[in-house]
Write a structure and sequence with these properties.
Blueprint: E1 5-9, H1 17-31, E2 38-42, H2 48-55, E3 61-64, H3 81-86, E4 91-94, H4 97-100, H5 107-119, E5 123-128, H6 132-136, H7 140-151, H8 157-161, E6 164-167, H9 181-199, H10 201-206, E7 209-212, H11 217-225, E8 231-234, H12 241-257
Parallel strand pairs: 1-2, 1-8, 2-3, 3-4, 4-5, 5-6, 6-7, 7-8
Helix pairs in contact: 1-2, 1-12, 5-7, 7-9, 11-12
The structure holds 2-phosphoglycolic acid.
2-phosphoglycolic acid (PGA) binds next to strand 8.
């Protein structure tokens, strides 16, 4: 079975390094040394070093929320893969819908960022997902196909096996609306089918595909129990250590039970 990955995407929160350290410490203390489920935290860039210090000695991974494709040079405001590794990052979120839709990132950009992350030996978490209008006009699969083929273009099966995907329906992010376990599982199965077609069955079986979009302590168990859902990318509920730990616990219970 694939090991579940529960990642907390803090987005533009919290406001101070002290608050970031306290939140990371709360998760660290609550998790202890457990490794039955993989856990990662994605604070804003400016708090990465502080959070890395707090996480020392814990199995929790450190994720950035974005990466630029160039290594260095005249690119004002950008941050590169080697820089992220230098401050302790193990993971990086790429192509979050708030960047695709808010900052005009295309699947081509995501592909360049993904290759830069792999070159830096970061574990990429590549986000894909349809908007509400796209779902209502039955374009979900068409949109996902464009995002999958564009974002993952040129990868070898071996590289693909090391990429984490996060299916995040845009209409479920931060809205309190969650895809039902049936809706989410159907899309995850579609994604796994595409991976099988393009990269082969052995690779498709290894790829961790997270679900994201209003994952909370009270819906985590049902979502994480779905056969093709391999973890969660958590926004709002990752800002309270207690809520995030409850989601991790739901994952640990699923891992202990095993999936059919
Ligand atoms: P949410 O965010 O859990 O607040 O919906 C998820 C995400 O954007 O990764």
């Amino acid at each position: 079975m694939r090991t579940l990955l529960i990642a907390g995407n803090w987005k533009l929160n919290p406001t101070t390094a002290e608050a970031a350290a306290a939140l990371a410490d709360g998760v660290k203390q609550g998790l202890g040394s457990a490794t039955d489920v993989h856990v990662a935290l994605a604070p804003p860039f400016v708090f990465l070093t502080r959070v890395d210090q707090v996480l020392e000695g814990s199995p929790i991974g450190l994720a950035a929320q974005d990466v630029y494709w160039e290594t260095n040079g005249a690119f004002t405001g950008e941050i590169s893969g080697p820089m992220l590794v230098d401050v302790g990052c193990t993971h990086v979120i790429i192509g979050h819908s708030e960047r695709r839709h808010g900052q005009g990132e295309t699947s081509g950009h995501v592909n360049q960022k993904l290759k830069a992350a792999l070159a830096a030996k970061l574990i990429p978490i590549v986000c894909i997902g349809e908007t509400k209008d796209e779902r209502l006009s039955e374009k979900t699969e068409e949109v996902l196909l464009e995002q999958l083929s564009g974002s993952l273009a040129g990868l070898s099966p071996e590289e693909m096996a090391g990429v984490v995907l996060a299916y995040e329906p845009v209409w479920a992010i931060g809205t309190g609306l969650t895809a039902s376990p049936e809706q989410a599982q159907a899309v995850h199965a579609f994604i796994r089918g595409w991976l099988t077609e393009v990269f082969g069955e052995a690779t498709a079986r290894r790829v961790v595909v997270q679900y994201g979009g209003s994952v909370k302590p009270d819906n985590a168990a049902e979502l994480l129990s779905c056969p093709d859902i391999d973890g969660a990318l958590v926004g709002g509920a990752a800002l309270k250590a207690g809520d995030f730990l409850a989601i991790i616990k739901a994952g640990q219970e699923v891992a202990a039970r095993g999936k059919s």
